[in-house]
Input
Amino acid sequence: MAGRGRPSRSTVYNRLAGALTELNERFGGLPSPREAQEIWDDIWHQEAHHSTALEGNTLVLREVEALLDQGRAVGAKPLREYNEVQGYAEAARWVYGQALEPDAWHDGRLITLAEVRHIHHVAMTPFWNVAPHPDASGREAPGNFREHDIEAFAEGMTPPPWPLVPAQVEQWVSDVCALGLRIERNEDLGRPLPEELANTHNQFERIHPFLDGNGRTGRLVMNLVLVRLGYPPIIILKRQRDAYLAGLRRADAGDCGALGELIARAMEDNLNRFIVPNVAGPARMVPLAALVDEELSLAALRQAAQRGRLNATQGADGVWRSSRRSVEAYKAAKHRRRPRPPA
Output
């Protein structure tokens, strides 16, 4: 059951489905990196920060932005942490470009085994150069599958023995491509789309094909699949780490609901925060979450809407919506100097 004021899982799924339909039918789908570089740069910064932070990286967002935009190592963090972010960011940039504008060599499949290995190679090489896995052989460098067995995790899941990894990853790639065809044909999936995506992500993590970097690679691979299917990429926020890991554990036991809901909310969040506000006109009504900036938080916008100071409407789903134009008008009125009372 949803908490008070929190929409149910089915509501989240239905809301996402409607938003995706609108994105495709009204705005012509996801904008390409060439058409909307600012959108993808925002997502790029956030993903590189949060996805590495899930693995323990301590760079804050401003340090990530300085590193990626200016090549400056701001702060006094270990070199491996800067390299980890740089490698992840390079792989994410490749993912966005190949997903929306693939090179001529791409064979048209949703994903290939070579792409999975390439993503791991790009993401992990800078990190590996300064902090290689202590147990790695020369054949287990970035881009190569592990040749070590991995002990059972604390939660109970045991990855398969290493000789089985190549065949299981090949089967995983085939399963993902088959799922993509079913989605494109609008076939009944048997369960909500976000839960199918959650199952796909969980299966990759269960194989744990590499000696290190499986979480980072799995999230990058998932975003390649998502964007190629016409869906927004996702960012699992560092504050969601416990919920994300709990969702993976539940998926290990066959329940993909919690992880599916987390993925659905992340997809909707990127639609609302980055994509729709930039492809929609200034008068377009969008959720207040899409209009947050450095000056106005979501709570401030909601309060202004509830008090009637911001031109906004509350839909049947409980979500307040306004437009960039209305927010700018509210800001202008808010900053307008009021006349001083007589002495």
Q: What stands out?
A: The longest helix spans residues 257-279. The mean pLDDT is 89. The first strand starts at residue 286 and ends at 287.
